[in-house]
């Protein structure tokens, strides 16, 4: 998705267990990226468990980036567990993931 | 009791049951008999313990069960194959969980060393051992804890016209704080039937205004093909205080659901995802079951309705019925005495007696419990002992549904523990020795229970080396328990191992071998009015048999007369009764007496003299001798005036009113309304040993005459 060049996108890796305590740090990271106007790729390949609070942050992030225009937030390489959780919770569309 | 404390009590009672269910399920997994329902039951048990623990703020308990639950969840969803190694870790985790529960109950908190098991669990789940996110139950939220029944899988045949359930589920922040996760709940709904999920994102604020630990999402879930509303409710049972929940029934119309995600449409994502499957039947675990119907027949228990009743109340009932039986006996005696030609009266009285007996049996049955609760603890014991001794052991359990009085159950644990340990530590050989002897490396310990002739028989059998009689004999001589030239039968040699201070173990291990095992076992069993016997077959194994009364409230007794008094001797202690010839009685020392019973001399004691009963006959010619077996002293002959009969008596303990009296166990009320004392044979014998100092016995005079 980010084809333009080196500095336009940063990435953050979600931990294997993204539970309640990860929601705060994740939010900060998203806000930071949003503030700097740089796109952010959330690497969800390592996720084995993700909690709803983290997903709340991601969905809110999606909306926020879209509103700000320009740089985008995207989720890359979602693991099976991530997809499964998002699917069961009916959040695939909100997270802009294809089924 | 303050209400909180009472709820806590209930929680721990639930925990006991849940731990049992968990253990049972894990063992089924170990033996490969588990189906998905079993695995689910284990998961739910761990989950429920965690949930309740969270409500009471047992953080350590919750932390551990959380890791355990995660592992179970992976097994449940088919992501983690329950290989023997995995199940072993799970079993150990189960043991630790019991320890945690015990620690929480005793209020000792942090005493459980679970780091190793936790690390192994983490390895299974792929988490870092020190899980920073280990959920700390934030705060106590009202009465969030609700006792949860374990779902024993009462899979009803699905009725064709199924209602459609519309579930509106809005978690509160507390739900997340207690480490619950909507994903798991909704997935569980998906196991009830096909689901359609719509996430409601309308409450989600701007990113900047978002509180990371707040709850904003809520969900609408449509569940189809689930006939039972309670099943839907059960899914949310644990979080009911921490979320808004609305379950409504819709008439089964084709529900138009724009942008809804239909679970059955997902298999392309993932081919082994149970949540995505339309129904529980399609779960991958089911594949492991060779014949599902057969397994179900064994694992699906019939759900019985139960209530919890204070033991005090039951005891009062038992007591009253006992009184009723006595009054009935008294009354019929008097009626029959006064009415001479009372044909019709006596038929009625017979009927009454019959009914009362039945009533008494029914009331006694309230106090009975299956021995399962004790037997369930043994697999863990075997595992631990086997690990400590480096032996391979398989425990077979039979007849765990056999019922016996609660008091007996409670006091059965310790002797059984000793015997099982003994069987593993002393009975079984090491794997190498077994292979060398042409036996499978894995030893078997068999624990069984059955009713036999109004008593319960519990057997602990091993297929080990059997008792080494030469060694036992040699040891007994070393310890001065027998003389070198005593001539003992095999059976007598086997029984030497019950003597206090006896141990054949060459080294003292911390499991057994301190010589305090089997004599304690025997004492405990005899305290319960039981007997223990041993059978051994060199090279093939040994077998301990316990025979116990079904209840401690009623006793089979022999009624004897001594002077003006009537006494009851517990039948369990009596070997035989006989009429001695004076030529069989020999004086021993200055004041002791011995009775020659077919060539073996046993001490002879007069009950009348010992208890100083007025009017007792000291004339041996008029006495009956009852041969009894007592713990510690062995056989002993008791002389009484006459045997009145043999019957069941209701035990009336007087320890709470009068205190303990040496030589007397309790009292009972006889049919004619008289009070009779029940003799405590062991106490009596011990007392007589001390009391035989320097006084000439009347028996000697009788003999001299």
List keywords for this structure.
heterodimer; A: 99 residues; alpha/beta; Transcription Regulator spoIIAA; two-stranded parallel sheet; B: 705 residues; Four Helix Bundle (Hemerythrin (Met), subunit A); Alpha-Beta Plaits
Which secondary structure elements does this structure contain, and how are they paired or packed?
The complex is a heterodimer of chains A (99) and B (705).
Chain A: E1 9-13, E2 17-18, H1 20-36, E3 39-43, E4 49-50, H2 52-68, E5 73-76, H3 80-88
Parallel strand pairs in A: 1-3, 2-4, 3-5
Helix pairs in contact in A: 1-2
Chain B: H1 3-30, H2 36-56, H3 59-76, H4 84-106, H5 115-125, E1 164-171, H6 173-177, H7 182-192, E2 195-200, E3 218-223, H8 229-235, E4 243-250, E5 261-262, H9 292-299, H10 311-338, H11 343-366, E6 368-370, H12 372-375, H13 378-389, E7 393-398, E8 403-405, H14 406-427, H15 431-436, E9 443-452, E10 455-462, H16 469-478, H17 490-495, H18 517-527, E11 531-537, E12 541-549, E13 554-562, E14 565-570, E15 574-578, E16 585-588, E17 592-597, E18 600-606, H19 607-610, E19 624-630, E20 634-640, E21 642-650, E22 664-669, E23 675-679, H20 681-690, H21 698-704
Parallel strand pairs in B: 7-9, 14-23, 18-20
Antiparallel strand pairs in B: 1-3, 1-4, 2-3, 2-5, 6-8, 9-10, 10-12, 11-12, 13-14, 13-21, 15-19, 16-17, 17-18, 19-20, 22-23
Short synopsis of the structure:
The complex is a heterodimer of chains A (99) and B (705). Chain A has 99 residues and is of the alpha/beta class. Chain A has 3 helices and 5 strands; from the N terminus they run ββαββαβα.
């Amino acid at each position: 998705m980010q084809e333009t060049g080196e500095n336009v996108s940063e990435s953050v890796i979600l931990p294997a267990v993204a539970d309640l305590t990860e929601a705060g740090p994740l939010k900060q990271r998203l806000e930071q990226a949003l503030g700097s106007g740089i796109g952010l790729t959330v690497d969800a390949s390592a996720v084995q468990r993700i909690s709803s609070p983290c997903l709340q942050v991601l969905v809110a992030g999606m909306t926020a980036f879209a509103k700000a225009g320009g740089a985008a937030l995207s989720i890359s390489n979602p693991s099976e567990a991530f997809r499964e959780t998002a699917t069961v919770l009916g959040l695939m569309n909100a997270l802009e993931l294809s089924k | 009791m303050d209400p909180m404390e009472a709820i806590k009590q209930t929680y721990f009672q639930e925990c006991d049951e849940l731990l049992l269910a968990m253990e049972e399920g894990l063992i089924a997994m170990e033996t490969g008999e588990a189906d998905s329902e079993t695995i689910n039951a284990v998961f739910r048990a761990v989950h429920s313990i965690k949930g309740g623990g969270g409500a009471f703020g047992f953080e350590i308990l919750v932390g551990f069960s959380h890791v355990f639950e995660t592992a179970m969840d992976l097994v449940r969803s088919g992501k983690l194959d329950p290989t023997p190694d995995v199940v072993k870790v799970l079993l150990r985790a189960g043991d630790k969980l019991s320890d945690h529960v015990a620690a929480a109950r005793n209020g000792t908190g942090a005493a459980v060393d679970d780091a190793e098991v936790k690390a192994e669990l983490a390895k299974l789940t792929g988490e870092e051992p020190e899980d920073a996110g280990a959920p700390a139950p934030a705060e106590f939220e009202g009465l969030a804890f609700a006792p949860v029944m374990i779902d024993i899988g009462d899979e009803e045949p699905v009725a064709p016209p199924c209602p459609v359930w519309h579930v509106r589920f809005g978690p509160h922040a507390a739900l997340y704080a207690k480490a619950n996760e909507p994903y798991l709940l909704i997935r569980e709904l998906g196991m009830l039937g096909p689901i359609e999920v719509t996430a409601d994102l309308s409450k989600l604020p701007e990113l900047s205004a978002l509180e990371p630990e707040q709850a904003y999402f809520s969900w609408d879930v449509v569940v189809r093909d689930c006939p039972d509303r309670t099943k839907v409710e059960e899914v949310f049972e644990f979080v009911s205080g921490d979320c808004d929940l609305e379950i409504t029934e819709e008439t089964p119309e084709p529900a138009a659901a724009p942008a809804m995600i239909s679970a059955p449409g997902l298999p392309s994502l993932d081919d082994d995802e149970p949540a995505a499957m339309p129904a529980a039947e399609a779960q991958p675990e089911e594949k492991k079951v060779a014949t599902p119907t057969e397994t179900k027949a064994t694992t699906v228990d019939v759900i019985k309705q139960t209530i919890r009743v204070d033991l005090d109340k039951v005891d009062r009932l038992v007591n009253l019925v006992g009184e009723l039986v006595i009054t009935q006996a008294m009354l019929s005696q008097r009626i029959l005495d006064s009415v001479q030609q009372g044909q019709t009266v006596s038929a009625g009285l017979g009927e009454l007696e019959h009914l009362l007996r039945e009533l008494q049996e029914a009331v006694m049955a309230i106090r009975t419990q299956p021995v399962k609760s004790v037997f369930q603890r043994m697999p863990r014991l075997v595992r631990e002992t086997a690990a400590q001794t480096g032996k391979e052991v398989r425990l077979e359990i039979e007849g765990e549904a056999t019922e016996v009085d609660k008091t007996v159950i409670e006091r059965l644990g310790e002797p059984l523990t000793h015997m099982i340990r003994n069987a593993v530590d002393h009975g079984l050989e090491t794997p190498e020795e077994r292979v060398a002897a042409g036996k499978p490396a894995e030893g078997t310990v068999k624990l069984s229970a059955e009713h036999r002739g109004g008593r319960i028989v519990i057997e602990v059998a091993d297929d080990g080396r059997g008792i080494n009689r030469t060694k036992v004999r040699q040891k007994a001589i070393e310890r001065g328990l027998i003389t070198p030239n005593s001539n003992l039968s095999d059976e007598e040699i086997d029984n030497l191992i019950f003597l206090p201070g006896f141990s054949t173990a060459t080294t003292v291990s911390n499991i057994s071998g301190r010589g305090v095992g089997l004599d304690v076992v025997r004492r405990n069993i005899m305290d319960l009015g039981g007997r223990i016997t041993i059978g051994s077959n060199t090279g093939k194994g040994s077998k301990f048999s316990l025979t116990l009364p079904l209840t401690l409230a009623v006793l089979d007794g022999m009624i004897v007369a001594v002077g003006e008094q009537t006494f009851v001797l517990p039948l369990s202690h009596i070997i035989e009764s006989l009429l001695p010839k004076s030529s069989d009685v020999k004086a021993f020392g200055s004041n002791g007496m011995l009775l020659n019973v077919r060539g073996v001399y046993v001490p002879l004691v007069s009950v009348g003299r010992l208890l100083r009963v007025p009017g007792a006959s000291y004339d041996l010619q008029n006495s009956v001798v009852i041969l009894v077996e007592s713990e510690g002293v062995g056989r002993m002959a008791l002389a009484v005036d006459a045997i009145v009969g043999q019957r069941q008596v209701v035990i009336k303990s007087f320890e709470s009113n009068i205190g303990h009296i040496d030589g007397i166990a309790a009292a009972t009320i006889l049919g004619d309304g008289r009070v009779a004392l029940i003799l405590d044979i062991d106490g009596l014998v011990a007392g007589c040993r001390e009391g035989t100092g320097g006084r000439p016995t009347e028996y000697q005079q009788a003999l001299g005459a």
